């Protein structure tokens, strides 16, 4: 994929046109959903439709709100609903009040804009560092995902990046695909490393060499240390996904919207948080999460498939996962 | 850290969502619609040059995409797949006589007799000189320019969307750019100032 540089290339045109960001917005969600719901019902006649059974049933919602795991310490007003502590008594996982995204701030919009450009710049599997002139004196990172469709490829990438491999079989479920994301430098300690300083220095050199009104500077960065690891498994019509977040000494905050309840349940001798999140009557999902002290990793298990797991089934699968991952 | 992780998960979640919709969880399609409706709307608005038609088109495109989603395979990015549907839908719409007239109205201002407030808004997508320059492009050329310049698609994505070789599209875009530049120079029009546009124009 070629590198895109829009900053000046199309100035003749963009300076004579309204920017997308200034155009009015629409919301056609309800209209579309009404149309496809009606269409799906009619379309089932005489053939087995992929749209079949789940239309009226509660289901696992795994949209952008799926996870708000905050793997760094920030100033949140935490309500301590549920905690998981390590053997030294330190809190490793806790639920907190939902964080209200500040999507309207100019800074956030600008940041999102730069992040989107960096995302477009990255090739699949590539870690990209970017620097914004006039903002914080720091290199930021983003990554473009690269799904790995065979267990051999998943294993190879996990080995290359020092990740502890997720299993090929999980309680009768078989591996379908996996992902290995890079560790993305962000902590104060990360910023003291020679590698980080080198990247920042190169980006700033780019900026100094040819800023000319340009604000965003990017470069692909080779990586060999993994961060988040995930694998999708299937068993018949059931599909589940297991995600591992190495904490590297950090903590996890689980954001809970108002009125949302999470439970802490002992499974295979480990405290597991079961969370069912309801966005509306139609849109809801559930997942199980636990902390593995030996690995200093936080796991998340959810279901994705055509058939939904009950709470008991999901927790049983979490138990099997805990045993396998030990 | 929060934002980078969140962004990373969003990409994961899109794939999950599409897989889940393919598996029968129809209601999750709402999240797909919410994720793409604004960029598709802007794309359609620029293509169709009519706000209401663009809104109708976005609905139709999402319905078409849903009907075809079982055939989607992640070997191409979902966004490119969706834009491909949008592209064909817009081309079909534009081939209709009614919309061709609207193009004339927008891009040949001399032929406008009386513009409604809605049409005024459509007209303000571009300066008169740029609108005139765009009117001289073919539908495919306009589409390429809109996707490249305003939707910021890579040539690889454009190749998927338009079913063409990315290198050929790159060359074609270069020619389009020159064509537009020449016409703007002939018109001698200055770029819009901030106050001249009803919408902020900075990209």
UniProtKB/TrEMBL annotation, chain A:
It comes from the Bacteria. The keyword Transmembrane helix applies. Keywords: Membrane, Transmembrane, Transmembrane helix. The chain crosses the membrane at residues 58-78. This is DUF4367 domain-containing protein. It comes from Paenibacillus algorifonticola.
Automatic annotation (TrEMBL), chain B:
One of its GO terms (biological process) is DNA-templated transcription initiation. The keyword Hydrolase does not apply. Residues 129-180 form the RNA polymerase sigma factor 70 region 4 type domain. Coiled coil: none annotated. Residues 33-98 form the RNA polymerase sigma-70 region domain. Keywords: DNA-binding, Sigma factor, Transcription, Transcription regulation. GO terms for molecular function: DNA binding; sigma factor activity. The keyword DNA-binding applies. InterPro entries: RNA_pol_sigma-70-like, RNA_pol_sigma-70_dom, RNA_pol_sigma70_r2, RNA_pol_sigma70_r4_t2, RNA_pol_sigma_r2, RNA_pol_sigma_r3/r4-like, WH-like_DNA-bd_sf. Belongs to the sigma-70 factor family. ECF subfamily. Gene3D superfamilies: 1.10.1740.10, Winged helix-like DNA-binding domain superfamily/Winged helix DNA-binding domain (1.10.10.10). It comes from Paenibacillus algorifonticola. This is RNA polymerase sigma-70 factor, ECF subfamily.
């Amino acid at each position: 994929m070629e590198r895109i540089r829009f900053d000046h290339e199309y100035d003749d045109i963009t300076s004579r046109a309204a920017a997308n960001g200034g155009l009015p917005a629409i919301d056609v969600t309800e209209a579309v959903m009404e149309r496809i719901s009606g269409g799906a019902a009619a379309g089932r006649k005489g053939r087995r439709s992929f749209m079949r059974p789940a239309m009226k049933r509660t289901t696992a919602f795994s949209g952008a709100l799926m996870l708000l795991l905050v793997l760094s310490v920030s100033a949140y007003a935490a309500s301590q609903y549920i905690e998981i502590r390590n053997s030294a008594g330190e809190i490793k996982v806790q639920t907190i009040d939902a964080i209200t995204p500040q999507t309207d701030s100019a800074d956030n919009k600008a940041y999102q804009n730069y992040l989107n450009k960096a995302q477009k710049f990255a090739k699949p599997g590539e870690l990209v560092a970017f620097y914004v002139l006039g903002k914080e004196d720091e290199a930021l990172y983003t990554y473009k995902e690269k799904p790995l469709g065979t267990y051999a490829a998943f294993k190879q990438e996990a080995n290359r990046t020092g990740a502890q491999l997720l299993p090929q079989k999980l309680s009768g479920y078989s591996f379908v695909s996996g992902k290995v994301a890079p560790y993305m430098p962000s902590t104060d300690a990360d910023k003291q490393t020679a590698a980080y300083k080198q990247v920042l220095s190169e980006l700033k050199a780019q900026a100094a060499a040819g800023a000319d009104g340009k604000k965003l500077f990017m470069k692909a960065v080779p990586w060999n240390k993994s961060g988040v690891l995930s694998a999708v498994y299937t068993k018949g019509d059931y599909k589940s996904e297991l995600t591992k977040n190495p904490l590297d000494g950090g903590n996890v905050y689980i954001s809970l919207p108002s009125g949302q309840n999470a439970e802490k349940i002992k499974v295979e001798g480990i405290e597991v948080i079961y969370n069912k999140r309801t966005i509306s009557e139609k849109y809801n999902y559930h997942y199980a999460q636990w902390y593995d002290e030996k690995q200093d990793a936080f796991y998340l298990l959810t279901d994705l498939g055509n058939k939904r797991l009950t709470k008991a089934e999901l927790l049983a699968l979490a138990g099997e996962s805990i045993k396998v991952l030990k | 850290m929060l934002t980078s992780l969140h962004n990373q998960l969003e990409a994961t979640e899109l794939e999950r969502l599409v897989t889940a919709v393919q598996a029968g969880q129809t209601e999750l399609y709402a999240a797909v619609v919410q994720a793409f409706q604004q960029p598709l709307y802007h794309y359609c608005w620029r293509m169709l040059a009519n706000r209401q038609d663009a809104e109708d088109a976005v609905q139709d495109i999402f319905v078409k995409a849903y009907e075809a989603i079982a055939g989607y395979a992640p070997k191409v990015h979902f966004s490119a797949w969706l834009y491909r549907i949008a592209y064909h839908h817009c081309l079909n719409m534009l081939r209709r006589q009614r919309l061709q007239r609207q193009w004339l109205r927008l891009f040949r201002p001399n032929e406008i007799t009386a513009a409604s407030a809605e049409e005024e808004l459509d007209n303000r997508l571009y300066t008169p000189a740029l609108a005139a320059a765009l009117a001289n492009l073919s539908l495919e050329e306009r589409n390429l320019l809109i996707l490249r310049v305003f939707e910021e698609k890579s040539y690889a994505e454009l190749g998927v969307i338009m079913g063409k070789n990315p290198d050929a599209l790159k060359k074609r875009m270069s020619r389009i750019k020159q064509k537009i530049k020449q016409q703007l120079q002939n018109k001698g029009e200055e770029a819009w100032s901030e106050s001249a546009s009803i919408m902020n124009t900075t990209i």
